Amino acid sequence: MLRSPDLSWLKNLTALEQLYLKGINLSATSPTWGQSVSPLTHLRNLSMTNCGLMGSIPASLQKLTSLEILHLDGNNFQSEFPTWLGHMTSLVSLQIANANLNGSFPFELLSQLPHLQRIYLVNNKISGNISLIFEARWKSLTVFHMSNNSLYDSIPSSIGNLSSLAELHLNNNTLEGRIPNSLALLRSLTVLDLGYTNITGPIPLGIYTMLKSLVFLYLASNKLDGQIPSCICNQTKNLKVLDLSRNKLHGYLPSQIGNCSSLNVLNVAKNNLEGQIPVELGKLNKLKILDISYNSLSGHIPSSLQNCKMLESLALSRNSVSGTVPQWIGDLSMLRILLLRSNNLEGGIPIQIRYLQKLQIMDLAMNHLSGAIPQQLSNISVMTNPDFTRSRPTRLGSSQYYSDEVYLVEKGHELAYKYVDLWTDTVIDLSANNLTGEIPKDLGYLRGLRTLNISHNHLSGEIPKEFSELLELETLDISGNQLQGRIPATLAGLTFLSSLNLSNNNLSGRIPSNPHWDTFGPASFSGNPELCGPPLQRSCGDHASEAGNHTSPQSEYWWESWKAGMGFGCAIGFGSVIGVLALSTRLRTKYFQVGDRFMNSFVSIRYMRERSISVFAL
After folding, report:
1. Among the four 48, 248, 456, 511, which has the fewest Cβ within 10 Å?
2. How far is CA 245 from its chain centroid?
3. What is the DSSP letter of 298?
4. pTM for this one?
5. What is the dihedral of CA 316, 321, 324, 329, to 10 degrees?
6. CA neighbor of 281 nearest in space, from 232, 330, 236
7. Cα–Cα distance between 139 and 188 in angstroms, integer?
8. How far apart are CA 487 and CA 491, in angstroms?
9. Is residue 308 classed as helix, strand or coil in its secondary structure?
10. Strands 167-169, 143-145: parallel, antiparallel or unpaired by DSSP?
11. Which among 33, 56, 55, 27 has a CA at the least distance from the CA of 46?
12. How far apart are CA 46 and CA 21, in angstroms?
């Protein structure tokens, strides 16, 4: 184990071919580490990732003429991309990601590296004209990963000359123009990532029909138009990720999508698709994420989806889907995210939802759902445990995690979340429906719940005292119902609560108060004529209806706690007596003898008293 940041001893290892110093803090050697490494002229592999290196990459490294692998990821160089790398003719793999590099990409020099197979420079600030970069004749290049940089211009047709290319990542650069048809010539391509690049026009048919090895196709957040062709997946049988979301695609979602039998992820959200949801989606039995939200799709939720037993996320929000929430939804045992917001769904919420043990987010808001909120939602084990173990996101064929966006409404705002971030959230949103009846008490047993929104329904009864058990709750909205009674004083103990809305109900009595609850303004309680006390202007002493209700909120909180404690104590005491009598014959006999003597004395006294009264009456 390396204990000293001094690397001067390396100079003596002149025959060294492999040097791995990954994760060792070498920040103290930043000015001199190049001098210690450059004498190692036989070095073929230099890996110094996450070593705390700063400043520029030392030019003395160009003395390492035998170097094939140079990995310097995760350092903080804050310097221009080194042009001298173009002289390292033996280089096979160049990996300097997340290193705060800037300046121009020296395509003219790097194009002279005949053995270069891997360029991995993601998450830097490197600029360059993409049309010139791909003029280089890298016959051996297999991976080009420069996502999250400052590349510009359009992808040239010459990219089709990179016959060995397997992965092309240009995500989040400022490109323009169309996807060249010559991309279909890259028969070895497994990953095509052109998301967030401003490219326009239709998607070339050749991508669907000629790239038989394609596993990951990510074209999200662009200005692509046209239709999704019916020939999709005729040849791309290995496709695991298809994300065409946030574009301008129109027409129907073709039934041939069912031929993509290897799909793990299908995301076509935020386009202009119409027609019915194809029943052929039920053939995708490996599907884990299905997002077709924010389109104009209609019809019922196809029953064939119950065959997709691997589904973890089902998002159909903001379409024109009708019918009911199907009962078979409870058979999707892997489901974690269920988003059906803003459709035309009606009928009741199926009780089978309680069988979804892994469900973390359920958004059924803004539909026409009726009936009562199902009982026993506390069976959803993930929501009952505030310390549940979060699973990692879905691993894809390209050894990457799918981290695209999904849209949720929280605290009245529509927010975009990465899928990888949602694995830590727990949400129930049933707002803006026609739900009736009382709020189920067992909702209070969902101790891992962070957001509960059941506002704008027709719910009645009182706020369950069990809500005081929702200690992880951050957002509570039960406004716009017909709730009555007092606000349970114990709700003031929800210290994580940052957004509260109890407005427009028939609540009465004094508003609980403590330093945390005092941060909520009048809007949280308005529209309840019988509520009084801060932050409302209505004083509790001004209302006759508040007679006998002048106890301070702090006293009320402790009174509730004292009653609970007394009840618990009495139960323990009574249970202890019964337990002793049940186990001891001698004590049980003595107990009943004492009881008999007491009752005899009581009857005698009462008899003498009644007799004296009757004599007096005569």
Report:
1. 248
2. 18
3. E
4. 0.84
5. -20
6. 232
7. 13
8. 8
9. coil
10. parallel
11. 33
12. 8
Token pair, residue 13, equals 């290892």
C-alpha distance from residue 25 to each of 43, 129, 192 (Å): 21, 35, 35
Residue 536 contacts residue 497 (beta carbons within 8 Å): no
**pLDDT tens profile 316-345:** 999 999 999 999 999 999 999 999 999 999
| Contact of 442 with 449, CB cutoff 8 Å | no
pLDDT at 395 > cutoff 90:
no
Q: Write the CA distances from 74 to 80, 97, 532, integer angstroms.
A: 16, 6, 57
Extract the tokens encoding 228: 């999704």
Contact 127, 149 (CB under 8 A): yes
Q: Given its phi and psi angles, is residue 317 left (phi above 0), alpha (psi -120 to 50 degrees) or beta? A: beta
Give pLDDT tens digits for 58-117.
999 999 999 999 999 999 998 999 989 988 999 999 999 999 999 999 887 788 888 999
Q: What is the distance between the alpha carbons of residues 188 and 23, in angstroms, rounded to a whole number?
A: 33
Backbone angle region of 148, left / alpha / beta, with phi > 0 → left and psi within -120 to 50 → alpha: left
Cα(288)–Cα(297) distance, integer angstroms: 21
- Spatial neighbors of 405 by CB under 8 A, at least 6 apart, are 245, 416, 417, 418, 419
The mean pLDDT value for 26-33 works out to 80
Phi, psi of 506 (to 5 degrees): -120, 40
pLDDT at position 595: 45
Cβ–Cβ < 8 Å for 122, 99:
no
If you average pLDDT over residues 551-572, what whole number do you get? 44
Band of pLDDT at residue 580, cut at 50, 70 and 90: very low
| Rounded Cα distance, 483 and 492, in Å | 18
- Tell me the DSSP string of 39-102: T-TT--EEE-TTS--BSPPPGGGGG-TT--EEE-TT-B--SBPPGGGGG-TT--EEE--SS--B
Residue type, 555: S
Could you tell me how many residues make up the chain?
618
Backbone φ, ψ for residue 418 (5° rounding): -75, 145
- DSSP code, position 388: P
User: Which tens digit of pLDDT belongs to each residue from 174-215?
Assistant: 999 999 999 999 999 999 999 999 999 999 999 988 899 999
